[in-house]
Amino acid sequence: LKLLGPLHPCVSVDLEAILRRAVPHPSAQRHRLVSAMALPAPWTDVFAEAERLKGTHLRTLLQDQARNNSMFLQSGGLTLDYSRERVDAKAMDKLFALAQAADVEGKRKKMYDGVKINETEGRPVLHVALRAARDAEICVDGQNVVPEVWKVLDDMKAFSEKVRAGEWTGFTGKKLTDVVAIGIGGSYLGVEFVYEALRTDPEAAKAAEGRRVRFLANVDPIDVKRALDGLNAETTLVLIVSKTFTTAETMLNARTVKEWLIKELGSPDCVAKHVAACSTALDKTAAFGIDSANVFGFWDWVGGRFSCWSAVGVLALSLQYGFDTVMKFHEGGRDMDKHFLTAPAKENLPMIMGLLSVWNVSVLKHEGCAVLPYCQALTRFVAHIQQLDMESNGKRVTMSGAEVPVGTGAIYFGEPGTNGQHSFYQLMHQGRVIPSEFIGFSASQNPVELPGEPVSNHDELMSNFFAQPDALALGKTAEELQMEGTPDSLVPHKTFPGDRPSLSLLLPVCNAYYLGQLLALYEHRTAVQGWVWDINSFDQWGVQLGKVLATQVREYLADARGKGADDSKFLPPTAKLLKKYLES
Predict the structure, then answer these.
(1) 237: β partners
(2) What 3-state DSSP class applies to 504?
(3) Neighbour count for residue 475 (Cβ, 10 Å)
(4) Of 101, 218, 460, 512, which one's alpha carbon is 20 to 30 angstroms from that of 560?
(5) Cβ atoms within 10 Å, residue 286
């Protein structure tokens, strides 16, 4: 009300309306208005811990060496240090109690047991089965699915080895050395992340000599041009990734590339030699002209954002790097699965990272999360984690359909290494508080040490990996600046508040095995958050509405380009913009 100032006596003011605008209703901004008193006891306890720690700076928390030591964990070559998170032992105990009250361990067991925990779609969630050992037993409706998984893996091994050896050739008899992988969302992001991460791994790079992979995801025709640029149709194998073979963007791109093949090679018969698919729609793949022997299936219990372990990723990656390399990736994921299933909560890396994310998002009400890999090979990791977490946990209702009483899901972003420092770290240090997750490797894929330089190139990079979390946590006070002789006029500008939370992950080296561990860690971390919030992290109804409306626009454009069409179904601004678009 102070903001309103003095009012003219003739002005009528609806104070209730003003307050509604000033303080949004919980249905719109519940993450800002959560009252701990309205929550169940485990949540109330966690909010009480946040209130207790409210005035305690990370500078103070980090002086407790016993606390720091308890937050330094190791498993399977991975090291997690979360001592720079704004928690202490008591707060962590309340978070573990929250997980227990939410039955996180029970829900985890159900996932591994093949129970249909994706209730809105009536499906199990079994990406862990995709990387299970050959002799494992994971059942769905009483049927062990692992043998079927390995049947597809064996088929892909055989096909990829034939292509790599030149036993399966193109329409003109030439060896197929280039691959165009067509897919979108979960059929693309995870696969591209792994592909990029292994490009400069010495072992994988050696296996990939003479071979290329291009990804075609965006329906924008510019993406088609870029994917096909410089390729020879005679040596190109096209992979179409679509479970139902109906995904609009993927199938339009597939038809576009098919026309390119036919035009370049002179016959529709070339399709059988140059196109393979990851799909379960055998009737549609056959109608497309694909040899049924070159169609590799996956299952409805594989969510798209968890599917790079399936044919979706294995086929393209095996063609590029060899099947054995991909199996090392699976082995890393499998070892993380075992850790997640068996490690006690206080030693369980995905459990702890998931709970810390809940703490930062729901309790401290931070809406962002920066994922900061200090490794250029992880150039596409953050894009994949954006989908993995934001599509999984960007939900507003619980499993029962009631509104979630706390904020869920963070906005994920990030860039590799020092690139990010020269981009958005300014905001992180002196602007908004954004929890951060630093990822580094002890050894580089490409070690470089120049004569006369004090440190190697990798040590230069990692100096920043170690320095930035401390800078975010500790900041720099006005008193410190004054003691250094900083001019008084610059002291406010050079003061860093600090108290910015972060955690650090250190891995030995960026190879296939540790990439498997890293990705599985983030998958399980995502699931833990959802189980605590009691949301379904495995559906994605939020992507549907835009698709439905896009279909209406597509139909309108088809008519408007011809005989004309009725635009009355659209919002007036949309109709106006469509009219402008059609002027071209």
Answers:
(1) 179
(2) strand
(3) 19
(4) 218
(5) 13
